[in-house]
Design brief:
This protein has 93 residues and is of the alpha+beta class. Helix content is 37%, strand content 32%. The protein has three helices and four strands; from the N terminus they run E-H-E-E-H-H-E.
Length: 93
């Protein structure tokens, strides 16, 4: 199992809502899922740039995560997420 951290700064809530409808099935295509997503974050240490929404994604392995982000058939879904605002996703491993 490998995880990814997604950090979103939302500028277009409608685009984010449309993305959320499609995100689960798009992740599942590559064995991924949203483990947890929240708009509530708390700084434990340092001075990070806090997101509007943070999510922890899981994938069976690194190749599955890379397959998801690079899947040409999911390009429109990834663009929808990006159109919602700033979107950073970091693979943890």
């Amino acid at each position: 199992m490998i995880y990814a951290y997604a950090k979103l700064t939302v500028k277009n809530p409608d685009a984010l809502a449309a993305y959320r409808e499609q995100a689960g099935p798009a992740l599942a295509r590559h064995g991924g899922k949203v483990e947890h997503a929240t708009a509530e974050t708390t700084v434990l240490d340092g001075t990070p740039d806090l997101p509007d929404v943070a999510a922890l994604l899981s994938f069976p392995n690194r190749d599955a995560a890379l397959g998801w982000i690079n899947d040409l058939e999911l390009k429109d879904i990834h663009e929808l997420r990006r159109s919602a605002g700033a979107s950073d996703i970091v693979l943890l491993g």
